[in-house]
Amino acid sequence: MTQSTYVVTGMTCGHCVASVKEEVGELPGVRGVDVDLISGRVLVTSEGVLALEQVEGAVQVAGYQLVR
């Protein structure tokens, strides 16, 4: 298993957290997503390394921005 941490901007509530968790969680190989609303940190546990573009796309679908 691989763990990667990302920072997402624009989240302001529990619904935001749920949206990001849902979209990122649907990526192939993802086994877990933990989101900290206060810091904007998203910890993704996956089988293997995910492409940054995949995670960024899922975050954008949820309505938020990934900080590069």
UniProtKB/TrEMBL annotation:
GO terms for molecular function: copper ion binding. It holds the Pfam family HMA. The keyword Metal-binding applies. GO terms for biological process: copper ion transport. InterPro entries: Cu-bd, Heavy-metal-associated_CS, HMA_dom, HMA_dom_sf. Keywords: Metal-binding. Residues 2-67 form the HMA domain. It comes from the Bacteria. The keyword Metal-binding applies. This is Heavy-metal-associated domain-containing protein. It comes from Amycolatopsis iheyensis.
